[in-house]
Specification:
By secondary structure, the protein is mainly alpha-helical. It has one domain. It is built from four helices and no strands. The protein is elongated and about 70 Å long. The termini are far apart. The model has no long low-confidence stretch (mean pLDDT 82).
Length: 127
């Protein structure tokens, strides 16, 4: 029997959940990076030429989300091994969140706000 098996398996499930989330963020970043293709097709099918469409921002934001997803995987891996060592240690330790996780959460919220404003401006330019 593995000592503290339920703790180790919970740690692994949490790690895998972080990896799945990171893959989703990276997939959304790739989709967003290719958003300019949608805008190009929408502009060509519009009756009038849409002025003010800027696709460069979606490319940078998409690349940013790809980077954030990669950093999430690195952070999740570091956290997995830190928790694994803490579970195996005989002495008790404090469990706390890291400033990196908080910074990434703030970064994702800022990207979401920017994306909302960006898409609203693109829709306004198309109509």
């Amino acid at each position: 029997m593995i000592p503290n098996f339920s703790d180790h398996s919970a740690n692994e499930r949490t790690y895998l959940a972080w990896v799945r989330t990171a893959i989703s963020v990276m997939a959304f970043g790739f989709l967003l990076e290719r958003f300019d293709i949608f805008l190009l097709v929408a502009t060509r099918s519009a009756e009038h030429a849409a002025e003010g469409l800027h696709t460069r921002a979606s490319q940078w934001l998409g690349l940013g989300l790809l980077l954030v997803g990669a950093l999430m995987i690195v952070g999740a891996t570091l956290r997995f091994y830190r928790n694994r060592r803490a579970i195996q240690a005989s002495e008790s330790s404090m469990y706390g969140d890291s400033w990196v996780a908080r910074a990434m959460a703030v970064l994702l919220v800022l990207m979401a706000i920017f994306l909302t404003v960006y898409v609203a401006r693109q829709i306004a330019a198309l109509s």
